[in-house]
Amino acid sequence: MSKWNLLRGRWGSGAGETDEIRIDASTNTIQTIEYEHHEIHSGSSYHAEAKAAGGSGTKATITFQTPDTTKYIHAFIHMVSNVEAQYTMGEGSTVTAASGTTLAALNRNRNILTATVVISEGTTGGDAAGALTQGATVTNFGTMLIDERQIGIGKTGGEDRGDSEWVLKRNTVYALEIESQATASEVSIRIDYYEHTDKH
Hints:
This protein is mainly beta and 200 residues long. The chain has 2 domains: 1-32, no CATH class; 46-197, Jelly Rolls (Sandwich). The protein is built from 1 helix and 17 strands. Strand 1 and strand 2 (18-20) form a beta hairpin.
């Protein structure tokens, strides 16, 4: 007989906020979800995407600043192009003021209205917490090129996704950009991220 039924888990910090650990009826294995999935349920996971179409040199760009707090941004980047393209992710980037527009960060739990803590960078009308920026001019990708790669071969295009999670540096400007290198191009860049304060 399984002893999983003797275990209890805490779902809150208050008195009595515990419950039985759930197990699968067929295999008696403990049931869990990935932490990233949990962050969606809790309303701390966000999505934003920028797209562009045109000739060679067309760029889709997302820029933002991380907050100067211990609530860290855990990011996954995904980029797509129908032609050969160059992807760059810079840390400590320099962005031209008022050169882009506001890019909403959608809470991935559509029943929760909590706004993101990231700060737009290079937005016309001024930068503010609660959004990112799209289409801003990046004058310098910064002191650290976190990621830089070609995607697509010739005119066959390509798709790529960072398999690893980036925990971004606090109080730092980041620039994500994909630039096409052929005509009749369509490019897009997406960031999915969750906000988390370390427990220890």
